[in-house]
Amino acid sequence: MIRIAAPRADVVADPEGKTPGRGGYLHRDVGCLEKFEASRVKQFRSLKVRIDRPQRLKISEEIRRLLDRAAKVE
Fold this sequence. Notes:
The chain is α+β, with helices and mostly antiparallel strands.
């Protein structure tokens, strides 16, 4: 699972799990990322912040890059 965090008003991917602030988790699965991108729910419950579509796409792209790098290392 990959943590996403809301240290301030912005939501970011937190692969090390060290960013302060509320956090939530997404599976390392492409299907889960696609559901996250397509979701119409504005509130990410565990973060207690609103995430609009551009933010979701930015976070998803960042996570995909992290997964690609991890796959190349293995």
